[in-house]
Amino acid sequence: MSLSVTETLNAHRTQRAFTTQPVTDDSFHQIIATAQQMPTSQYLQAYSLIEITKPEIRAKLAEITTMPTVSENGRLLVVVADQHRNASLAPGTAAKRALTEFDRFAGSIEDATLMTAAMVMVAESQGLGSVVLGSINNDTQAVIDLLHLPTLTLPVFGLQLGYPEVRPEKKPRLALPAILFKDQYQEPTSYQRALTEFDQQLHAYYQGRTSHARDESLAHMTNEALGSAAKRHRFLQIVRRQGFLPELDD
Fold first, then answer.
1. Are 133 and 70 in contact (CB under 8 A)?
2. Alpha-carbon span 154 to 238, nearest angstrom
3. Which of 62, 118, 215, 248 has the fewest CB atoms within 10 Å, i.e. is most exposed?
4. What is the DSSP string of 44-62?
5. Contacts of 17 (CB under 8 A, 6+ apart)
6. pTM reported for the whole predicted model
7. Kind and range of the H or E element at 93?
8. CA-to-CA distance for 244 and 236, rounded, in angstroms?
9. CA distance 119 to 130
10. Cα–Cα dist 135/77, whole Å
11. How far apart are alpha carbons 172 and 224 in whole angstroms?
């Protein structure tokens, strides 16, 4: 039985381990076709999906993402921001320029992001689990080379779908006062109570986990995230090498 959108999102957990039960082609294709109904900037549908089936490529992506489970069960996709296809449909110097400047580059990232989110929701509504792998950009150039991505494309996410092996505890989210403002931006000092309460919930969540329990706080996790950002310091150079953002040369 399928879950509603509200039920699906409220039940979401990131799944990293999947059983050997295969996701059928029919189910897989339905997930993708349904997710295609998400909004797309200017109807350009500026994304492509590459399913990874070869064990040696999965193993390399597992190494890049530092997640061994990527090489194991479930179906694995790489979601690509793609203006290459549109450039072939609208040939010419002016069209290529328009498709590669920041506005359309951002649009392709937005399209790829919305498509990924939709695939997660559709898959989980059908009882599957998912993990979104932003970590494929730990080594963007290696992914580009591995998948033979042409210019005007860029890997955005990996997405692994399958039947969950375990059901993790639900991780808390920030309360509405910390993310929902009226009429203007609010500084964190104005919702410090919400942040303090969230930190208490986060600490309890990590202390109570059935695996890898630890002391944790939002500030520590924010600082910890800077490590992954350091791996991507060449990201802009790679974006430029792929043919995007020509206006930076003007």
1. yes
2. 9
3. 215
4. ---EEEEEE--HHHHHHHH
5. 69, 72, 73, 164, 165, 166
6. 0.92
7. helix 93-100
8. 9
9. 9
10. 13
11. 18
Q: What are phi and psi of 164, to 5 degrees?
A: -65, 140
When computed from its CA atoms, the radius of gyration of the chain, rounded to whole angstroms, is 20
Choose among 204, 239, 198, 193: nearest CA to 222. Answer: 198
| β-bridge partners, 52 | 76
Helices (H) then strands (E): counts for the chain: 10, 4
What is the token pair recorded at 161? 């779908």
- Both tokens of 72, joined, read 């194991």
AA letter at 122: V
Instruction: Residue count of the chain, please give it.
Output: 250
Distance CA 21, CA 222 (A): 36
In whole angstroms, what is the distance from residue 168 CA to residue 156 CA?
A: 25
| Helices 140-147, 55-65: inter-axial angle, 10-degree rounding | 170
